[in-house]
Design a protein that fits this description.
By secondary structure, this protein is of the alpha/beta class. The chain has 2 domains: about 1-105, Rossmann fold, CATH 3.40.50.720; about 110-345 and about 365-410, Dihydrodipicolinate Reductase, domain 2. Helix content is about 35%, strand content about 20%. It contains 13 helices and 14 strands. The protein has helices spanning about 1-5, 20-30, 50-60, 80-95, 110, 115-120, 150-175, 185-195, 285-290, 335, 345-355, 365-385, 400-410, and strands spanning about 40-45, 70-75, 100, 135-140, 205-210, 215, 220-225, 240-245, 260-265, 270-275, 300-305, 310-315, 325-335, 390-395. Strand 6 and strand 7 form a beta hairpin. Helix 4 (about 80-95) packs antiparallel against helix 12. The longest helix is centred in the middle third of the chain and has 26 residues, at about 150-175. The two termini are about 40 Å apart.
C-alpha cells in the first residue's frame, strides 16, 4: 500500500471548462517522462456533465504516445433518447473502442463464470435450450434501503437502476449463442442478438412495489419507509421493487419465461440465477413424488451473492428399505473449494480488464440502445398511467403480486 501511495498524485481543477484538463495533461506529461504512456480516465462525475468532460479530455488530455481509455459510470441515460444523445456525444470525441461503460455487477466472479460453465462443459451446453429448460429466474434482492441514495434513486427507480443494466446484461450473457471466439467484440455481438430478439415487455407482465416502514427484528426500533427517506418526494410513486416476465423470441428460447426480480428492503441479500428444468416425462416415481411435480424439478442455481456457489438440485433415494425420494443438492461452494482471497473485487477485475483491453463485460453503444428500446415504452406507460406500486413491509418478501405473476406464467419463485 505504501509503495502504491507513492505513485498517487492529486491535481485540482474544475470540469466546467477545458482549462483543468490542459493543466492535468501538463502534470501527466511530467510524470510520464519520454517513454510510451497509456492513460485511463475514470469519470466518477455527475452524468449530465459527462459529455463536456469527455470533450475536454479528448481534446486536451489524450495520451500522445499510447492509448487512451475512458471509464464511464451509470446511469447511461434515462430512456432511449437521452441514452442516444449521451452515446452520440461520447462518439463525437472518442472511438467506441476507447469507451468502457462500467457495471460492477458484471464483474462478479459467478457472472464471469457463466460462459465458462456453459461452453466448456458438455453436460450443460446441450441442455441450454427450450427443450429442457422450463424457466429462468434472475434475482437481485437487497436487504437494505436507500442509505443516502434517496435523491438519486427517486429520479430513476428500480427498472432504470438495476433492470436496464445489471439484469439485462446478465440475461444476454446467459442466453447468447456460442461466439466465434472469446474476443470481446465477438461476445458483445452475440449479446446484442439476444437483446434484439427479446419481446417488447408489457405492463401486465410486471409487478411494482414500494417498501413501507416496519419494526426491527428485535422489536426495539422503527425502520422508516421509502417515502420517509431523505431526498424522496413524500408522494413519490417510484418503485423500489420490480418483478417481471421477459421472453426471447428465437429458436433456442421461444416460449421460455425469464423472470426477473429486483428490490430493496427485502428479507435477505441475494443475487442468483436459477434455471428450472422440465419434469421427466412419464416419471416412474410419480407416486413417491406426489402431486406437485414442480417440487421434483431439477434446478441449476448460480449463486452470485452473498456466497459464491453453484448448486445442482437432483432427486435422490433416501437411504433405507423404503423408496422415499428427496431433493438433494450437489454443490460447489467457493469458500470451501477456493481461497476466498483469490476472488477479486468486481471493480478490481473490471479495471484490470480496461488495462488489458478486454471489453466483453462492458456495454457497447448498440447494446445500450437495444435495452433502452425494450424498456422505454414500458417506463413511459408506467409514468403516464401513474401506476401506484404495491406496498410491502421493509424486511419482507416483497409484494404479493409477484407471486400471482409467477403463477400466471406457470412458474414458482425460488424459495427465500
Amino acid at each position: 500500500m505504501e509503495t502504491f501511495l507513492q505513485s498517487v498524485y492529486y491535481e485540482s481543477g474544475g470540469y466546467s471548462t477545458c482549462d483543468g484538463m490542459s493543466k492535468l495533461d501538463s502534470r501527466l506529461q511530467e510524470l510520464e517522462g519520454f517513454g510510451e504512456a497509456n492513460r485511463i480516465f475514470y469519470l466518477s462525475v455527475p452524468h449530465e456533465i459527462v459529455p463536456d468532460v469527455s470533450k475536454c479530455l479528448s481534446r486536451d488530455a489524450q495520451s500522445k504516445s499510447g492509448w487512451t481509455r475512458l471509464i464511464v459510470e451509470k446511469p447511461f441515460g434515462s430512456d432511449t433518447d437521452s441514452s442516444a444523445k449521451l452515446a452520440d456525444c461520447l462518439l463525437d470525441h472518442l472511438d467506441e473502442s476507447q469507451i468502457y461503460r462500467i457495471d460492477h455487477h458484471l464483474g462478479k466472479e459467478l457472472i464471469e463464470n457463466l460462459t465458462v460453465l456453459r461452453f466448456s462443459n458438455l453436460v450443460f451446453e446441450p441442455l441450454w435450450t427450450r427443450t429442457y429448460i422450463k424457466s429462468v429466474q434472475v434475482i437481485l434482492a437487497e436487504d437494505w434501503g436507500m442509505e443516502g441514495r434517496g435523491g438519486y434513486f427517486d429520479q430513476h427507480g428500480i427498472i432504470r437502476d438495476i433492470v436496464q443494466s445489471h439484469l439485462m446484461q446478465t440475461i444476454a450473457l446467459f442466453a447468447m449463442e456460442p461466439p466465434v471466439s472469446l474476443d470481446g467484440e465477438d461476445i458483445r455481438n452475440e449479446k446484442v442478438k439476444v437483446l434484439r430478439s427479446m419481446r417488447q415487455p408489457c405492463l401486465q407482465d410486471f409487478c411494482l412495489g414500494q417498501y413501507k416502514a416496519s419494526i426491527s427484528k428485535d422489536g426495539k426500533s422503527r425502520i422508516r419507509g421509502y417515502l420517509e427517506e431523505p431526498g424522496v418526494n413524500p408522494n413519490s410513486l417510484t418503485p423500489t421493487f420490480v418483478a417481471g416476465v421477459l421472453y426471447i423470441d428465437n429458436a433456442r428460447w421461444d416460449g421460455v419465461p425469464i423472470l426477473v426480480k429486483a428490490g430493496y428492503g427485502l428479507i435477505k441479500h441475494k443475487v442468483e440465477i436459477r434455471i428450472q428444468f422440465h419434469n421427466v416425462p412419464g416419471n416412474l416415481y410419480r407416486e413417491q413424488i406426489g402431486y406437485n411435480m414442480d417440487m421434483a424439478s431439477n434446478e441449476l442455481i448460480i449463486a452470485v451473492q452473498p456466497e459464491e456457489a453453484i448448486y445442482l438440485k437432483i432427486n435422490n433415494k433416501v437411504p433405507g428399505l423404503g423408496t422415499q425420494l428427496d431433493s438433494s443438492e450437489l454443490n460447489l461452494l467457493y469458500r470451501q473449494k477456493y481461497d476466498e482471497e483469490v476472488i477479486p473485487d468486481s471493480y478490481e477485475r473490471l479495471i484490470l480488464d480496461v488495462i488489458t483491453g478486454d471489453n466483453h463485460l462492458f456495454i457497447r453503444s448498440d447494446e445500450l440502445k437495444a435495452t433502452w428500446e425494450l424498456l422505454t415504452p414500458l417506463l413511459q406507460e408506467i409514468e403516464e398511467q401513474k401506476v401506484a406500486p404495491e406496498m410491502y413491509t421493509y424486511g419482507g418478501r416483497g409484494p404479493v403480486g409477484a407471486y400471482y405473476l409467477g403463477a400466471k406464467h406457470g412458474v414458482r419463485w425460488a424459495d427465500e
